[in-house]
User: Which sequence fits this backbone?
């Protein structure tokens, strides 16, 4: 047993020390695998980042109410009377100013993207007690908008992604000029991609009469959800659906996230195949070039399994080096990269940052290891099967 | 011709190595083809846009409606040939938002006259003009839900409820085909008169206008005249060429072009390195034989060409197989019709792909080929591995 291990160690060390002699092919194999890892991490960091932006910082007691036939806030509609009925339902937390419920309007306006200068659908939300209901909205620059005036506050993501969204900036919607008076953070990435104003000002600007699109509600506790939902859905005067905001956002982002993920995995699989063929080539030639040495070693008494394991170990080292470099390069290039895309389900822009998570890096390294092992296995078996007498004669 | 036999036997001497190299190039070009197809799927609206068509919409955003009465007013503006209005209906089939497709009420006759890329047989057109509840649908939408002419389809719209909250009922009277390869055939078009009479609210409002102009060179001028016509009204407009509108829409998703170029560069760099290294190695191993060839009277230039032919053959075998597989895959239609309704391998990508195949063959072979050319016979024959 000790002898067996000693054989593996000495063969492996010997293999690794000969790498400089075939630097070209070794680098090609490592770069091939590094490329796979970099692309895999790069594409999936988009999906991770988008998903992270669609997570809320709010707890399970933040709930959204829409008209039952609506699939998103954009297509929903609720009358003033309906929003009052919703705010009177049991289970809603209360403060001195009344129930923590905010009837809101959700529209989109055209603004220019800073990166491309082209029009983008930016969500503009009219809120009542939106800040109190969310609970974690903080003004990081400027001040809060004054109710009744054409003033807006802008989420940090929107401020970064769209032109003119700095404090003091002005933009025109319809007949009126609007002024940016503050920048806010909190509520999660999707909220930070929005512009907020007073619902009462937004209604006439968009010819909405006295109607709203959604009601956001803070419950007394997460456990109050079921009774709150039952109270609304069984009320014959209401036709609404009720969802926790976290569930609602996950559903809203599912189409885009799963699309990016499947494309990312598809590209990675294809590239992994390409890199696998490259690694196989490298190691087959390495084994072929050393046929005589390997035969000599085996004639000296080295066993079959140490020969196999040492070749596979070499391949593994190349894969790990390539994978680590590829992963590091992807991390340096993509992590925190700011972008904004259109969420197809809401038709509006979401600002987000690419996110290279540790899990993503770990699974990329797993890919590299799998390619390395697979790429080493067959050449290793060939090395072990070389007929000694023939290989010794080879020139 | 007999030289090709030399190339061929060289390729056959290490079958495993040759096949692995061919396979990795095959994978690279399959990926190239599919990524080009995806890019085309995103930008199909730009490709299909008519140079003589403008889009007129509410200045604030696309979700705001404009009055239907704007149509006749625009038609009176000099340079405007015809006007068609569209409205986003957001129809939902069987109460499941996942059964998503674009559903739009339009005035049938002007619509078909302006958007000639929707190819509808004449008898089906007549049927649509006769049937108030008639709808025409695209081929891919028909395939997706197995709808055929004569079917009755109920849709609910969260934006436009029908009077009495009943579902909207439509009779499929026609199925249109793609008049151009990039035409979206996932659409559902029905008659505006039926829609306007049935909706519970918002009568007389439409989503946006398509405007055909007499002379594409005067597009900017006509666009300005249209916006000026409606300036300072409650519904101010924004007019731009259809292509610019589609381009801006693509940009909303992100810079897809740049991302695909980045991915493809990574792929090609990797594959080029791997394939080039293999080819270089196989030439190095044959130094002695190349010396023999030269001693037999092969010129330096011929030896170089032989090596280049070898690398190009590998690239062509792998590359064209990859492009061919892409054509095969895309000919079966979109795997995700709700996300990417248009899915085909555009001609320009096939040409770019073919050029890349040769570029790869030359780039991978040029270094070993130069080495082989410069190799002095005596040195080659003495070299021993």
Assistant:
């Amino acid at each position: 047993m000790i002898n067996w291990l000693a054989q593996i160690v000495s063969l492996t060390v010997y293999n690794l020390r000969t790498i400089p002699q075939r630097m070209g092919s070794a680098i090609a194999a490592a770069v091939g695998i590094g490329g796979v890892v970099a692309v895999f991490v790069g594409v999936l960091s988009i999906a991770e980042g988008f998903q992270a932006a669609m997570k809320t910082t709010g707890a399970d007691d933040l709930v959204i109410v829409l008209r039952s036939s609506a699939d998103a806030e954009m297509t929903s509609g609720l009358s003033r009377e309906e929003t009052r009925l919703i705010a009177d339902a049991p289970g809603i937390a209360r403060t001195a100013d009344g129930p923590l419920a905010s009837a809101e309007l959700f529209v989109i306006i055209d603004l220019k993207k800073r990166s491309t200068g082209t029009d983008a659908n930016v969500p503009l939300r009219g809120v009542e007690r939106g800040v109190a209901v969310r609970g974690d909205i903080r003004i990081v620059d400027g001040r809060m908008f004054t109710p009744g005036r054409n003033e807006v506050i802008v989420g940090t993501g929107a401020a970064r992604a769209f032109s003119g969204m700095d404090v003091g900036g002005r933009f025109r919607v319809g007949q009126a000029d609007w002024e940016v008076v503050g920048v806010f953070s909190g509520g999660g990435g999707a909220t930070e991609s929005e512009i907020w104003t007073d619902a009462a000002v937004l209604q006439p600007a968009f010819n909405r009469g006295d109607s709203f699109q959604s009601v956001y509600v803070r419950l007394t506790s997460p456990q109050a959800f079921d009774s709150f939902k039952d109270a609304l859905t069984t009320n014959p005067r209401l036709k609404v659906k009720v969802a926790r905001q976290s569930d609602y956002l996950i559903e809203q982002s599912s189409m885009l996230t799963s699309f990016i993920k499947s494309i990312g995995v598809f590209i990675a699989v294809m590239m992994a195949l390409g890199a696998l063929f490259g690694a196989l080539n490298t190691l087959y030639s390495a084994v072929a070039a050393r046929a005589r040495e390997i035969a000599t070693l085996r004639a000296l008494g080295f066993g079959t399994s140490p020969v196999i394991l040492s070749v596979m170990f070499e391949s593994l080292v190349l894969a790990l080096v390539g994978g680590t470099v590829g992963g590091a390069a992807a991390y340096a290039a993509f992590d925190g990269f700011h972008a904004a895309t259109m969420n197809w389900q809401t038709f509006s822009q979401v600002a987000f940052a690419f996110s290279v998570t540790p899990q993503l890096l770990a699974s990329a390294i797993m890919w590299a290891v799998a390619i390395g092992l697979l790429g080493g296995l067959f050449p290793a078996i060939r090395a072990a099967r070389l007929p000694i007498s023939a290989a010794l004669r080879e020139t | 011709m007999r030289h090709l036999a030399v190339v061929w036997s060289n390729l056959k001497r290490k079958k495993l190595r040759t096949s692995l190299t061919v396979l990795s190039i095959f994978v690279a070009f399959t990926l190239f083809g599919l990524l080009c197809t995806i890019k085309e799927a995103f930008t199909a609206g730009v490709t299909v846009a008519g140079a003589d068509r403008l889009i007129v919409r509410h200045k604030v955003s696309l979700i705001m409606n404009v009055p239907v009465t704007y149509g006749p007013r625009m038609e009176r503006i000099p340079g405007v040939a015809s006007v068609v209005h569209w409205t986003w209906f957001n129809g939902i089939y069987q109460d499941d938002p996942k059964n998503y497709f674009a559903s739009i009420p339009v005035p049938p006759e002007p619509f078909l006259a302006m958007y000639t890329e929707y190819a509808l047989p004449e008898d089906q057109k007549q049927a649509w003009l006769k049937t108030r509840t008639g709808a025409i649908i695209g081929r891919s939408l028909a395939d997706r839900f197995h709808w055929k002419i004569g079917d009755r389809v109920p849709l609910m719209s969260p934006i436009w409820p029908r009077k009495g909250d009943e579902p909207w009922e439509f009779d499929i009277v026609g199925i249109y085909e793609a008049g151009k390869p990039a035409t979206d055939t996932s659409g559902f078009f029905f008659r505006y008169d039926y829609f306007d009479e049935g909706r519970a609210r918002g009568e007389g409002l439409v989503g946006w206008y398509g405007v055909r102009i007499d002379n594409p060179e005067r597009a900017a001028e006509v666009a300005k005249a249209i916006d000026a016509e409606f300036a300072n009204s409650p519904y101010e407009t924004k007019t731009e060429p259809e292509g610019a509108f589609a381009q801006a829409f693509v940009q909303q998703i992100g810079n897809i072009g740049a991302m695909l170029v980045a991915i493809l560069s990574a792929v090609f760099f990797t594959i080029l390195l791997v394939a080039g290294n293999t080819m270089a190695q196989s030439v190095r191993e044959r130094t002695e034989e190349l010396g023999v060839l030269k001693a037999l009277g092969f010129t330096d230039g011929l030896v170089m060409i032989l090596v280049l032919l070898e690398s190009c053959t590998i690239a062509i075998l792998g590359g064209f197989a990859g492009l061919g597989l892409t054509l095969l895959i895309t000919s079966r239609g979109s795997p995700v019709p709700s996300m990417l309704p248009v899915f085909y391998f555009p001609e320009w990508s096939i040409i770019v792909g073919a050029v890349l195949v040769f570029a790869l063959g030359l780039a991978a072979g040029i270094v070993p080929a130069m080495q082989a050319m410069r190799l002095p016979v005596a040195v080659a024959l003495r070299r021993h591995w």
Observations:
- The two ends of chain B are 31 Å apart (CA to CA).
